[in-house]
Amino acid sequence: MNLRELAAFLKTRRARVRPADVGLPAGPRRRVPGLRREEVAQLAGLSADYYTELERGRGAQPSAQALSALARALRLEGDERDHLFHLAGRPVPAPHAPAATAHVEPAMLGLLDRLATTPAMIITDLHETLVQNDLAAALLGRHPMRRGLEASYVYRWFTDPAARALYPPDEHPHHSRVFVSDLRAVAARRGRDAHVVRMVVALRRRSPEFAALWDGHDVALRRADHKRLLHPALGVIEVDCHSLFSEDGRRRLLWFTAPAGSRGAAQLELLSVIGTQDMSLGPSRVSRTAPDASRTAPDAPACGCASDPSVGVAENPRMPLICGHCSLSGSGASGDHCDSPHMRK
C-alpha cells in the first residue's frame, strides 16, 4: 500500500470533479476546486474523518468495497479505478468479481444525477442495488442491506415472502417468470460464474417454483416492463420500467415513468412531495426517513474493528452504506458484511 501516492491521487481526482457533476449545488463560498472532502466521503458512504485520513496519507487500508465506492464518487474510469486498487494494495477485481460488478461507469452515474425528478436506480445484472435516487427510495423503499446471495432481489423474491409485498399477489407468477428468464440469460452470458452457479443451486434447493421455471429453459433479458406497485400511502401506482445496460451488461440503470396525464403520473408527482417519509410496508421496507449525513457512530464499535471509535458513518441516499469502523458496506454486493449497529438501517 502506497499511502503517499494514494493520498495524492485522491486529491487530484477530487479536484477534477465539479459539484454539478454529482448533483450537488456549487454554493457561493466554495474555496476549493472540485469537491470538498466531506462531499466525497458522503457520496462514497464513508465517514469524513476516515476519508480525510486517507488524503493525509494515513489511516487503515481501505477495503475493496470502500475503494469501489470511492471510484464511483470520484467518477473514475476503468484504468483509474484499477490504479486506485493498486495504490491501496488491493488486487484489481476480476471482471465478474463483486467489486468489479459494483463499479459504476461515470457516464451512467451522470445520467442518474440528471434524473432527479424521475425515480431511478442502478443495479447489477443479478438485481443487487448499487445506487438509488431519492424518488426511487420513495417509490420502492430504501433497499434493505443484505450480504451474499440475499443481496440479490431475485434471490429474495424466491426465498423471502416479504420481498413480494411490493407487487399485487395476482402478478407474482408473471414476475417470477420474468426473473427466471432474465437470470438464465445472465447465467449464459457470464458462463460458469461461481456466484451465479451458487445462486441457481441454492434457489433450486429452496424454491420449487424456481426449480420448475428454471427447468422450462425460457430465456429473455428484462429490458422493459409495465409494473403495478403497491405503495403504503398512495395505493397502486402503475409505471413503466425502462432499462439502460452498461457496455459489459453487468449493470443496469432503471427508471420509472408514467404517461402524461395518467393517474400514475399524478401519483409520481405527489411522491416527490411526500418524499422519504417513514411509511414502512412490513419487513421488506426500511425506514423512509431522509438520511442525516451528520450521524456518528456509538462509542464502541460492535463490528470488532480496531479503528478509532470516534470515526462515524455518513449516509447518502444515493450510495450504499459503509461502516465507519471497518469500511464494509451493508449492501452485501461483495458478500462481506458488517453487522455493527453503525450500519444505519
Describe it.
The model is unreliable at 279-345 (pLDDT under 50). The chain is α+β, with helices and mostly antiparallel strands. A hairpin with a 5-residue loop joins strand 4 and strand 5 (251-257). Helix content is 37%, strand content 10%. It folds into 2 domains: 1-92 and 301-345, no CATH class; 106-284, Beta-Lactamase, CATH 3.30.450.180. A 5-stranded antiparallel sheet has the order 2-1-5-4-3, with helices on both faces. It has 13 helices and 5 strands.
Care to give the gist of this entry?
The protein is α+β, with helices and mostly antiparallel strands and 345 residues long. The chain is built from 13 helices and five strands. The two termini are 32 Å apart.
What tags apply to this protein structure?
345 residues, alpha+beta, Beta-Lactamase, 2 domains, five-stranded antiparallel beta sheet, 13 helices, 37% helix, disordered C terminus
